[in-house]
Amino acid sequence: MSKHPHHELAEAWFRRAWTELDPAAVDEIFDAEGVVEGLGETIHGPDAFRAFQAQMLELVQDVEVDVLEHFHDDAGGNMVLCALRAVSRRTQRPVAMTGSVRYRVRDGKVKEVRDHWDWMSFWEQLELLPQGSFLAALSGARVGQ
Fold it and tell me: What is the value of pTM for the model shown?
């Protein structure tokens, strides 16, 4: 069975924008009025996405994102479950996280995105948060104090 075209678009996005660092990918795949939520602050448009991407690439290199599962609903919604692997620029150690991305496509481009990634463990692996931060916060302790 062939993949839904929107799933192929998601795979192309991760491959071209993150692994290949293809500068044309953002404009070709992300709508000029596209919105991304779930990456700290809401991102509006390709230029704001490129700024986020640049910040991430200051922290990590050799990014690879595997799309593990695809979902599509009759209302036009799409979702992918992903695994990201990269290398910390500071420590040269591997880092990884999983996440899901819900997105909508309009006129062949990604228009709306809701990202949900395991940022806490990612920041811990990058040594930007202390190890065990999630469990500490869950127990009511202040993280880092």
Answer: 0.89
Q: Which amino acid is at 6?
A: H
Is the Cα torsion angle 105, 11, 84, 134 positive or negative in sign? Answer: positive
Tokens of 5: 């075209």
Q: What is the DSSP letter of 28?
A: H
CB 78 within 8 Å of CB 7: yes
What's the pLDDT score for residue 22?
Answer: 93
How many CB atoms lie under 10 A from the CB of residue 122? 20
Which positions ≥6 away from 128 have C-beta within 8 Å? none
CA nearest neighbour of 14 among 107, 95, 101, 120: 101
Which H or E element spans position 109? strand 109-117
Query: What token pair was written down for 98?
Result: 């999983």
